[in-house]
Design goal:
The chain has 332 residues and is of the alpha/beta class. It has two domains: 222 residues, TIM Barrel (Alpha-Beta Barrel), CATH 3.20.20.70; 93 residues, no CATH class. The protein contains 13 helices and eleven strands. The chain is globular.
Length: 332
């Protein structure tokens, strides 16, 4: 069992270590952090566990963007800025410290480095592998799986439509995402690599199901977000107690991501442009202010479709339970 990286707040060294201590593979999310913050997180995990863990990096991409639509969206958010008493952020592009983070993981040598939003070239993959690091890449289609296989990665994280948070697609397509079961079959036809299934997996029975469908492991994220080790905010935790649907939206970051539907999503999704990470930085002060005010209607409530099954139980206990139930279910 693999713990999803959970970039943007829920990821903590305590959670990564707890997942690994429970018999899984914990992950540190490097996304949105500085190089020094990632370094400290890696060091803190190693204080808490001697077991293997991974680090997830955002692959930097510059996708085609409509500058006029982005400017219009910024103007549209003036009312939100007034509501929360802050100014919108600067809608700028960033590579998320790509070069520095690559150098850091090469030096710190976690067991695994995974990539989201794209796949580095073979030279980068080989560089990490030569340092004793396994390289994984998140894919959302058979085409992406073929690209990543050609780059020489060791395994693929196959992310289905059910997953919470950002869709890891290379091109941030508007096409309807494929459900996990169908996607596993399509990707298996395209590659020989081990597959880690992600999306809507919430318990041991779910883990067993994807193993039976051909995956080598299951990645769970949303159902770790209520654990005491997770950095999930108070309003985000409270939203898990409701029965609101989830939906894909660009409203918070400019890239499609699945979250629990709230006021901000309803008010702004229709106008949100395809512009990542520009919209992420534009809305960051609004979301921070809403979070401080414990207003769940103004923040990104990332969650997968099975979020109602999450439990406020220590992560190591959950991972051990899921593993035991999966093993019990698989012989059948």
């Amino acid at each position: 069992m693999v713990g999803a990286p959970l970039a943007g707040g829920a990821s903590t060294p305590e959670l990564a270590a707890a997942v690994s201590e429970g018999g899984g593979l914990g992950f540190i999310a490097a996304g949105y952090k500085t190089v020094d913050e990632v370094r400290r997180a890696i060091e803190q995990v190693r204080v808490r566990t001697r077991r293997p863990f991974g680090v997830n990096l955002f692959f930097p991409t510059k996708l085609k963007m409509d500058a006029a639509a982005l400017a219009e969206y910024g103007a549209r958010l003036a009312g939100e800025a007034e509501r929360y008493g802050v100014k919108c952020g600067k809608a700028s592009w960033s590579d998320d410290g790509w070069g520095g983070k690559l150098e850091l993981v090469e030096r710190k040598r976690p067991a695994v480095v995974s990539f989201t939003f794209g796949c580095p070239d073979r030279a980068v993959v080989t560089r990490l592998q030569n340092s004793g690091i396994a390289v994984w890449c998140t894919v959302t289609s058979a085409t992406e799986a073929t690209i990543a296989t050609s780059a020489g990665v060791d395994a693929l994280v196959v992310q289905g439509a059910e997953a919470g948070g950002h869709q890891g697609s290379f091109d941030d397509t508007d096409a309807a995402p494929v459900g996990l079961l169908a996607l596993l079959q399509l990707v298996r036809k395209a590659t020989h690599l081990p597959l880690i299934a992600a999306g809507g997996i919430a318990n041991g029975q779910g883990v067993a199901s994807v193993i039976a469908a051909g995956a080598s492991a299951a990645q769970i994220g949303t159902c770790l977000m209520l654990t005491p080790e997770a950095g999930t905010s108070t309003p985000h935790r409270a939203a898990f107690a409701n029965d609101a649907p989830t939906a894909l939206t660009r409203a918070f970051s400019g890239r499609r991501a699945r979250g629990i539907v709230n006021r901000f999503m309803r008010d702004h999704d229709v106008a949100a442009p395809r512009a990542y990470p520009q919209v992420h930085y534009l809305t960051a002060p609004l979301r921070a202010a809403a979070r401080a005010a414990e207003d769940a209607d103004g923040i990104n409530l990332w969650a997968g479709q099975a979020y109602s099954l999450a439990e406020p139980v220590p992560a190591a206990e959950l991972v051990a339970r899921w593993g035991a139930r999966a093993r019990a279910a698989l012989p059948r």
